[in-house]
Amino acid sequence: MKILGIESSCDETAISVTEDGRKVLSNIVASQIDEHRLYGGVVPEIASRRHAENISWVAKAALEEAGCTMDDIDAVAVTYAPGLIGALLVGVSFAKGLAMSAKKPLVPVHHIAGHIASNYISHPDLEPPYLCLVASGGHSHIVEVKDYTHYHVVGRTRDDAAGECFDKVARTLGYEYPGGKFIDAAAKLGDPKAYTLPKPRITGSEYDLSFSGLKTAVINLVHNAEQKGEKIDREGMAASFQATVARTLVDKTMLAAENLGYKTIGLAGGVSANSGVRALLEKECAKRGYKVYMPELKYCGDNGAMISCQGYYDFLAGKRADESLNGIATLSLDAISE
Question: What span, in angstroms and rounded, lies between the C-alpha atoms of 276 and 233?
């Protein structure tokens, strides 16, 4: 079964064709990073306009790379939530028109479920149930993956997402957007014990996360040093910050795994590309004898393959949408499992 998956929740116009939820036949991504870098972050209006300009040729390229026409496609899957509303609407509108004109079923896909599904592409042996840490620019969740379409969020950030924190700290240290890869590269050159940073804690909610205080601590340290004419060890700060984020994410995940009885752990989302997070999660899982699954780096960020893959499982579960499908800016993963 071939599913065409469309992803436009932020600043990547991405379309993919996959077969049976595991085999990627094509994966085309039109990135807007260079343009948004001029502004230090994603500008929603620009993102929406570029999606509208790119989506037709990206779809054509995805079909060509897969060696398919729409006659070969069994269903059209699309990210409908959560994300930037204008960006989502471009993908949803295009998907509705394409599905209707080609007389194909339309499958609505939750963006976070798509990130989780990226692991099925890289690891054909992975099957639910398992516990998954999802960390990206907009989300930080610890999720019980009950089966391919049912989830329970046991922990989430109370404020900033981990990826957002990476970008803001990177900007403070003078790195370009998107900041995650620059922090990662600098951290490899620095001492993770160069600076003592606060470790976020949430009272009364043992699996929830918080990164706002950590971000503020770094910003204050850097600004205070600048005001005093002192030099900041950028590599040391990057290493200290990254180590703190990784420890926070991994410790919470290990605590949830131990308490809830999971011995299979997944990692997903844009921050899953971070070498510090990956290394620490592997280390802590190995200490406990847990199996750990991580997507290949090319599937960590937003991409159409993850939406196509999850769309396959949603299709099998009977999920369908009609022409009334709309984009939704905010929607909990728990809400689609009810």
Answer: 19
Instruction: List the one residue out of 304, 311, 308, 309 whose CA is nearest residue 29.
Output: 304
Confidence of residue 338 (pLDDT cuts 50, 70, 90): low
Coil vs helix vs strand at 178: coil
- Distances in Å between the Cα of 260 and the Cα atoms of 100, 153, 282, 336 are 44, 12, 19, 22
Q: What angle do CA 36, 294, 62 make, to 5 degrees?
A: 55
The per-residue pLDDT for range 261-282, each reduced to its tens digit, is 999 999 999 999 999 999 999 9
| DSSP labels, 202-268 | -TT-TT-B--HHHHHHHHHHHHHHHHTTPPP-HHHHHHHHHHHHHHHHHHHHHHHHHHHT--EEEEE
**Distance (Å, whole) CA 132 – CA 152:** 10
Fold exhibited by the domain 2-116+300-337: Nucleotidyltransferase; domain 5 (3.30.420)
- CATH class, range 128-298: alpha beta
DSSP string, 143-168: EEEEETTEEEEEEEBSS--HHHHHHH
The angle, 0 to 180 degrees and rounded to 10, between the axes of the packed helices 85-102 and 44-66 is 30
- pLDDT tens digit string along 18-29? 999 999 999 999
> What residue spans in the chain does CATH classification 3.30.420.40 cover?
2-116+300-337, 128-298
